[in-house]
Amino acid sequence: MAHAASPDGETGGTPPVIAHVVPAHRDLVYDHLAGQMLLPVEVVLSDGSTAHSVLRVGPSRVELLSIQLGQAIDRRQKMLDDRVVAS
After folding, report:
1. In a domain, 62, yes or no
2. Which top-rank group of organisms is this from (predicted)?
């Protein structure tokens, strides 16, 4: 990720830092040669600009993420169910 110059051609100041990273609206890919899951992501910088990248996740992390995502989905569903009951 390169820091772009301002319209007057001056780069000055501090380059923007990463504000957050979000999954891109693209499918996951499994790289069987590297044994990794590739998750396309969008990197959002503090100045509002974005860059595209890929999060590489090894097999043991994929298993752990699968479990953690399942737990998060279950907690969200329970919260939604509790709201319906409370209504």
Report:
1. yes
2. Bacteria
